[in-house]
Fold:
Amino acid sequence: MPASASRSLSVELRDAVALVTLNRPDKRNALSIELRFAVAEEFARLSASDDVACVVLTGAGSAFCAGMDVTQFGGDEDNRRQLYESSVACFRAVGSCAKPVIAALNGPAVAGGFALALLCDVRLASSNAVVGFLETRRGIPASYASARRALPAALAIELSLSGRVLDAREALALGIVSAVHDGEELLDRALEYAAGLASQPRWMLLETKRRILLDAEASVGALAAQEDRALRGALLTPRVDPAA
Structure:
């Protein structure tokens, strides 16, 4: 079932595995407003689909995802509202998907792209992948909630504060990714892994994922909600012009 939610996202069903590809290779798959809304819509659909048992998320070209499309930052109130609403919808849809989500990190997964990967259940990486919260270098707080959902507290704190970038082998050693494969093998290995999960009894797979989501909500649900509120305040709270 080849499908396309938008020009910036492709979706293909391979038996019971949905392959979702961020498709802005010329922009290193930076998350535009359009792409974030497309991801939210497709993950909601896949989460509810009886035809899908597992999802693989990857990027087109040489990067998994370079984070938010910073060329869209700012603008008028309508644009800033779309920035907020698309961001919350995108990350929430991936993080709450009822099916297991496997991230195939085919290249850099940085800033918001790293947060997106951390919201997936399992991460596999190519040997040229790097991960890290690069947005801290712009003075933007990292998504500690995403980090804490997937990582031990000490590691989540250190990466969120420092913005340190890790290569694939470092990420493997620290347990951020579960395996590292040569670039040309990564997608096949990710699809094989997902197919293995999809071959299990569906009720068992869904029940296990339900428990994973319950644990995530109990451990970081309040923190994630606070991050959402902080983002809303940063983008939508009226600013007072001191010269007025």
Notes: The chain has one domain: 2-202. The domain at 2-202 is CATH 3.90.226.10 (2-enoyl-CoA Hydratase; Chain A, domain 1). Confidence is low (pLDDT under 50) at residues 240-244.
